[in-house]
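Chapter review: from sequence to fold.
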Amino acid sequence: MNEEVQAIRQVADGAAAVHGCEVWDVQYARGGKGAWVLRVFIDRPGGVTLDHCEAVSKDLSARLDVDDLIPHRYVLEVSSPGLTRALTEEAHWRKSVGALCRAVTADGAAHEGRIVALEGGAVRLAPRGGGPETTFPLAEVKRANLMFDEERNLTETRTRQ
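The C-alpha cell string follows.
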C-alpha cells in the first residue's frame, strides 16, 4: 500500500470507528473514464446498513477535505465488502476463521474450503466435502474471496433475531 493510500486509510479508520464500523479495505485508482475513484469498504458485527455507509461517507468526505489528502477531483464510494469479500490482508484471514473461501495460489492451484486457522504464515483449510486439510503459505495467495455459506449465514441470522 503506497503512502497516499495509507494516509487515506488512517483517516477512513477514524471516520468508520466513530460510527461503530471498521475499514475492511481501501481502493484508490482511476476509474473507467479516467476519473479518480476512492472506494472504502466498511464492516461491523451484525452487518453494514445504508445508514452506516452514508454516515461514514459524510464524515470521511469532510475529513479528507480538511486534511486535503487528495489534491484533485475524485468520487468517494463507501459500501460493505459484501458476502464474497476479498481476503487481501492477514487480518482478513484471522477474522474469517470458520468461513468458506476460495483461494488461488501462485502455482495456479485453486483451494476451496473452510478456514481452519492461520498459523505461522500459513493457511489451513478443511476442504468442502471432506478429506484431509490443506495448508499453503499466505504469501503464495494470488487472490482469495469468501464464498457464500448458506449454513453459516442461517446460523448468524438466527443468532441475531
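Two observations follow directly from the output. The two ends are 39 Å apart (CA to CA). Strands lie at 22-30, 36-43, 74-79, 100-105, 110-119, 122-127, 134-137, 141-146.
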